[in-house]
Amino acid sequence: MTQHAYAYVRLVNMVFYAHHGVLKEEHTVGAKYEVDVELRFNFTDAAQNDDITKTIDYGAVYKEIKKALTMKKYFLIEAVAYEIAHDLLRDFPLLEQASIKVRKRNPPVDGICDYAEADYSAIRH
After folding, report:
1. Which residues have a catalytic role annotated?
2. All residues at 6 or more sequence positions from 11 whose CB lies less than 8 Å from its CB, including other chains
């Protein structure tokens, strides 16, 4: 009997300084952003054989997320999360689902707020 399993690898609380937001000042001054990614894929072969070539390179995932956050300016953290998820699915064929959380610390909401967060998942079809 063939078993199909899914497992998850998470990179949690990656921190970047970037220039996103609706307000002009946000694009100039910038802010701290935090990103979590959950990668769903079958890593049974990698685990059973302790073989790094059968899994996803976390360093490459990190670089892709950093590039998305720091090389382009967005108005919305929703757009950042969407782009990261779809870029990861495009660039990592082993990946079945990418779930991304993008947090913007101290968003400009005219009051006290720790962060705003966009949470997006993309699934390979």
Report:
1. 104
2. 35, 36, 37, 39, 58, 61, 62, 65
